Amino acid sequence: MNILELIQKRYTAKKYNPNKIIPQEKIEDLKEILRLTPSSINIQPWKFTFVQNTEIKAQLATASKHNQERVNQAQLIVVFSVADDLDAFQTVVENEFPQFRVDWYNQIKASMPESNLKVWLSNQVYIALGVGLTASAALGLDATPMEGIEPDKYQTILNMTTYKPLFAMAVGYGAEDDLNRLETTPKSRRTQESVIETI
Ligand SMILES: Cc1cc2nc3c(=O)[nH]c(=O)nc-3n(C[C@H](O)[C@H](O)[C@H](O)COP(=O)(O)O)c2cc1C
């Protein structure tokens, strides 16, 4: 399948087959693919938490609004978090990056209010969601991007301090009777004329 066909075929799964197991090597590939996500100045201000443990998934499900059922059913939940404690993240930057990148980050940090910096950092994490959704499709897996979660509760359940959850992605095999499958719900998008300008 070429990349266009892949993108035409992927859809947001609303219902999962809880019995079909994801091969562990696909999960390992997904971890590495997310790690390789590009970001502005290569700042990588994220944590990707892979949750397969049924009990923890059940806890997350209670903090997942209308996504509760999917979080329980999907074999894997990936929680995407952004650096939130900026002092702690400063230490990460200083320990893990070469000096030129530390200087670059410090310049950006000094150039804007903290609230804008946090928006900028969060924007980088959304790039990983795009990568993760496309990668899931390429791995033959179905996925659900989910902003409909309670980040504060997720943060407590996952015991996080430096990072704060932004959204999650359920991954697994979609149920045959999922009404959001393309057979029942064809892809719906604005036209090329509306969204693409060619000059
Ligand atoms: C950032 C983001 C957050 C989303 N949050 C949810 C969600 O919480 N629950 C859900 O069922 N779908 C969610 N969606 C799925 C969108 O509704 C879906 O991508 C859109 O309607 C297009 O449909 P498609 O993905 O099937 O092509 C989200 C999508 C994105 C990109």
Automatic annotation (TrEMBL):
<dbReference type="GO" id="GO:0016491">
    <property type="term" value="F:oxidoreductase activity"/>
</dbReference>
<keyword id="KW-0521">NADP</keyword>
<dbReference type="InterPro" id="IPR000415">
    <property type="entry name" value="Nitroreductase-like"/>
</dbReference>
<comment type="similarity">
    <text>Belongs to the nitroreductase family.</text>
</comment>
<keyword id="KW-0285">Flavoprotein</keyword>
<keyword id="KW-0560">Oxidoreductase</keyword>
<dbReference type="Pfam" id="PF00881">
    <property type="entry name" value="Nitroreductase"/>
</dbReference>
<dbReference type="InterPro" id="IPR029479">
    <property type="entry name" value="Nitroreductase"/>
</dbReference>
<feature type="domain" description="Nitroreductase">
    <location>
        <begin position="7"/>
        <end position="173"/>
    </location>
</feature>
<dbReference type="InterPro" id="IPR033878">
    <property type="entry name" value="NfsB-like"/>
</dbReference>
<keyword id="KW-0288">FMN</keyword>
<protein>
    <submittedName>
        <fullName>Nitroreductase</fullName>
    </submittedName>
</protein>
